[in-house]
Every structure is written in C-alpha cells, then in structure tokens.
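CORE FACILITY INTAKE
Project code: CF-77B
Contact: R.S. (postdoc)
Sample description: multi-component assembly, two entities in total
Requested service: structural model of the whole complex
Turnaround: standard
Below are the sequence entries exactly as provided by the requester. Do not edit them.
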Amino acid sequence: MSRTHQSGSSTVWSLVLFATLALFAAALYTIFVVAPVEQQMGIVQKIFYFHVPSAYAMYIGFFVSAVASGVYLLKRDPRWDAVAVAGAEVGTLFCLIVLLTGPLWARKAWGVWWTWDPRLTTTLLSGMIFAAYLALRSMGDTGEVEKRFASALALLGLVNLPLIHYSVQRWRGVHPTVITGKGGGLESEMYWALGLSFLAFTGLAALLIWARASIERQREESVRLRLELMHR
Amino acid sequence: MRVLIAMLVLGCTMLITPTALADSPPVPDAGASETQEDAAEERATQFVGVRGPEAESISGGALLLAAYSVVWALLFLFLMRMRGLQRQTAEELERLSAEIRASEGR
C-alpha cells in the first residue's frame, strides 16, 4: 500500500515537473518573442513577467509555512512542521528574487534602486520575519520550544501578507498597479506572458515545497533514530 | 540556507546604506537668476553631481539580463543546496539504520 502510494506520488511529481518545465519554456517564448516592448520603459519592463510571479510564489511559500505552523501548534505533528520549514525556505527564496529583481527595474523606471514605498517596505519586512524564522530553525537540532516559537513567528508573518497586497491601494506610493488598478492594464500578449509565468511559478513553488518538505521529514526521521540509538 | 539568509541580509544592507548616506538635495537660490553676471562670473565655479535618472543612462538590456540571471542563479543555488542536504540526510539515515541493526543483533 505504502509502495503504491509512493509510486503514485512519484507519478504526480513527474507530471508537475514536466508541466512546469513546459510552462517555463512557453512563458519565456511569450515574454521575449510575442509580448511587445513597453512604450515608456522599453525592454526593462520585461523584468515584470518574472518579478510579479516571484512575489506570488513568495505569498504561496509564506502562506503554506504559516498555515502548516498553525496546524503544527494544534496537532504537534512533525510532518506539518516539515511543511512549515519548506514553505518558509521557498518563500524566502522568492522574496530574495523579488527584492533583487525589483531594484533592477526601479533603477530604470524610477531612477533609484530603492525607495521606502509601502509595498517595498512591507515586502522587506516579510522577508526579515521569515529570515528570522529560518535563522531560528538553522541552529542545530531544533527542540520543541524553538519549533513552537518559530511557528508563532510564521503566524506573525502571515499577518503581514495582506498588508503587502493592500498597501498599494490603502497608502500612497509609487509602486505600479497595472493588474489590480483601474488603469489601462496590460495588452493581451502581455497578459498571456504574465499568465503563463504565473502558472510556471506556481508549479515551481509547489515542486520546491514538496521536495524540501520531503527532505525535512527525512531529517526528522534521522533525529528520531539518533535519539532511539542513544536510549539503547 | 545560511548562504540564503546572508544574501538577504547583505541585500537589505545594500538597499538601506545609500538612503542612510544620502545628503539632502541642494536648495536653489531664488534670487540668483536676478543678479547681473559679468563674463568671468558666467564661467562655472562649481560642479554639482546630477542625482536621478539624468546622471547616467543604464542600458535596459543589461538590467534585464541581470534580473533574469539573478532568478536562474538563485534557483540553481537553492536546488544545489537541496541536493546536498538530501544526500547528507540519506547517508545519515543509512548509517543510523545500520547501527540500530547492529545493536539489535548483539
């Protein structure tokens, strides 16, 4: 039964992997061949097609981490803790991508690498919260107290996520709102490029969280075996 | 993961430093245009660095290349780290299982 389940998981994993690779290929073709160059900003606007989906993948990672942390606090099941760690790591990876690709676009569009715009600041804050989570978890074999403290930190990070999303609507800033705003939006080819990138990054985030959680469960198992060996 | 955290901290520091070091912009003198200048005074007496987009023209293509390179490089590093972690954990599990089997055989 277990072997059948494992085989089924492996098939799903392979399907998601191939779908993600195909989506990335299609997204890159649409971004660089089909989608037109933006009139005002020029070619640098094409950073947008990876920058925005990276932010979305960051939301996925942090959201998964926070929810899994909440479930772990309720059930104390180490499998949920493994998912929380995986979500935090993957979310932080995409947060780093967002914080590095954003300034590269901003330098051309705004003339500065960084400005204390509400969306930029709240994104940086989220990155720092989950970096603190990972720093706490990377201190050797984490005990139960550290795990619970880290889970609470992840839940705190969850509170910040809606702030990132709604900051552009509630507070004045310079960050563009071409998707959620009431302006002209994007041209149809640009929507295609962005949509394909969104799908590709969703698949990528799911695969990375899945793989990282699996490794974390193995690490938990090795800690359990070590303890078992010590008590013999 | 420590590399990832270090990169995040370094990135944040690099973002904050220019703001912390920035001087307030020079205030233009409102009466300066009204004063009469002779030939000598028309010559430049100071050089002021232009702040903002007029200062230099950075190629959009180079920025685009840098952005996409950053994405692929970080993803590659993350995958390499996961691979290393998986290998290390598998070896540890193998070793511990062997030790447990040996202790049961005694």
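Facility notes:
- Chain A has six helices and no strands.
- The mean pLDDT of chain A is 89.
Invoice: internal transfer
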